[in-house]
Amino acid sequence: MRRDPDALAADLAALAAAGRLRSRRVVERVRAGGTDAARVVVDGRELIDFCSNDYLGLARHRDVIAALAPAAAEFGAGSGAAHLVTGHSLPHHALEEELAAFTGRERALLFSTGYLANLGAITAFAGRGEVVLQDRLNHASLIDGARLSGARLLRYGHGDAAAAGRVLAERDDVALLATDGVFSMDGDVAPLPALAPLAARARAWLLVDDAHGLGVLGAGGRGCVAAAGLDADAVPLLVGTLGKAFGTFGAFVAGDATTIEFLLQHARTYIYSTALPPAVAAATRVALRLAAAEEWRREHLWQLIARFRAAAAAAGLQLAVSATPIQPLIVGGAAAAVRASAALREAGFWVAAIRPPTVPEGTARLRVTLSALHRAADVDALVAALVAALATRAPAARMAKR
Ligand SMILES: *Cc1c(COP(=O)(O)O)cnc(C)c1O
């Protein structure tokens, strides 16, 4: 695109006309602590937040917050440099060891975000002249990692391990197979027990991005890879993020010692980016301990998920096949999803409308996420509000649904 302000304005107008203009809402206050912790104040109004990824409520946990100030006093507000320069401090190092133990891997390497972890891992393990194979509904950071790597990106149908297997059987140049563990916009889980042996037989790296499974799924919240009984041999590259169930910020890749040392030496997003603040690592250590130890958070979450699904089904709402805290309601058209989201906000609920290109054309949705911060009564009230918000859909939106 040449430098042309009119072209930018035209692009923005086209986005707005298509109902695709994204906007931010300013959170003015969060009710940290206490029993109303899922509530936030936006535009002067209190809303129950049903779209955060703080699945266990740890972002607002007193002990996690309290870990920040003393660590900042000791190590500074920021790390001051990349890990390989002077930015790698004691809290980072201890957190890496604890993440390795938590995931049952020899080593873990911290990255500043999950986006950077995926870019770094894929570009380190795949390159020009090779193929990266991915699920069609993978997170954008996995897709972008493949693009940046220079490898050819091939995609298989969502959750279709047999289709992935056919590609792996036909070609000898697939360097890496990548999949979300829990799909971020759909809430379903990848067919890992089928994918792992296929990747191993083809001698392709298998990368599982369990951003939404770690802390939530499996015994002790060890994620969908552990729940499927898959070790570092079956899943050599396990990516986790720290900004979701762990409630803080950052990400990591876990694997065996040689794999992780190779990643440290070659991942450009690791080498050339400032280490996350040591205080954040210190707070994450507390969050990790709580996530592993406090089974009641997960038990409460499972009860809320079951309650939501039963109530929504009884009310005639079309649920997705998700058994995780991500519970999308497919609306169809982007404008209809935005309208439903606005109606919910009027009723006191914050539920994000997710539109293309984040999700495929014609599958705009309300993405409800449940958290251990919610109460049963919050979920019941949400279902009633969803029924009302979706009933007021305009006729044009109904037609766009198919
Ligand atoms: C959120 C997310 C990421 C990105 O993690 P950040 O730490 O937010 O950059 C990567 N993969 C998946 C599947 C995600 O949901």
Q: Summed up, what is this model?
A:
The protein is 44% helix and 17% strand.
What does this structure look like?
The protein has two domains: about 25-55 and about 295-395, Aspartate Aminotransferase, domain 1 (Alpha-Beta Complex); about 60-290, Type I PLP-dependent aspartate aminotransferase-like (Major domain) (Aspartate Aminotransferase, domain 2, 3-Layer(aba) Sandwich). The chain contains 17 helices and 14 strands. The chain has helices spanning about 5-15, 60-65, 70-75, 85, 90-105, 115-125, 140-150, 160-170, 190-200, 225, 255-265, 270, 280-295, 295-315, 335-345, 375-390, 395-400; strands at about 25-30, 40, 45-50, 105-110, 130-135, 150-155, 175-180, 205-210, 235-240, 250-255, 325-330, 350, 350-355, 365-370. Strand 2 (about 40) and strand 3 (about 45-50) form a beta hairpin. The structure holds pyridoxal-5'-phosphate. Pyridoxal-5'-phosphate binds next to helix 6.
